[in-house]
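Supplementary Note 3. Input sequence used for the single-chain structure prediction.
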Amino acid sequence: MPPYLKIYDGTTNAEDQIIHYVTVVKGNDPSKEQVPSVLLKKFGETLIGGELTWYSQLPERSITTFEEMADKFVTAHAGAKKAEARVNDIFAIRQLLGKGIRNFLARFNRVRMSLPSVLEGMAVAAFQNGLNRNGSRAARKLLSRLMKYPPTTWEEIHNAYCAEVRADEDDLNGPTQRLTSVQTESRKDRHNDGRRDHSGPRPNQDTH
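The predicted structure, written as discrete structure tokens, is reproduced below.
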């Protein structure tokens, strides 16, 4: 087979592999009569690893045409297309403008946990890609750490967030929370003062 023929390892779209394979075989200019036989006989040479194992375990003489082979191959590897879509989905997650990293981390992690077939290294790359480089100081700080110490696992991403960002975001939220608390206490004090004004001792009244 030509050296430029793509070898299939199960990580890409099976339908695309069939189209590519047929195109390459026909590009070698076999006669019209030879094409069906060549397509069927040479297909196994395009597979490696588990895909070659799948091919070798097909019952002998169970497939007589390449069309049957292509149908079984695409059906058996339909999951590869779904996995490819999942990778695209996780790379589409972005840190929203005006939202902190905590919000982005929570959204990203929910999607990551729902896609167990996505490799951890792919999730790490997608998370870094989704950070807003023009966002808050906290985002830039986290990106700086991830560039200095490139993570390879999700745990390292989480540890970097805890070390560089979580305390800062807590500080940013703190003044708002304290202000809310002070305002609440102030309203309570005014309310209590009002109640004391209405329920306190009244001047003596003459009795008749």
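Confidence is low (pLDDT under 50) at residues 171-188. The chain is about 65% helix and 0% strand.
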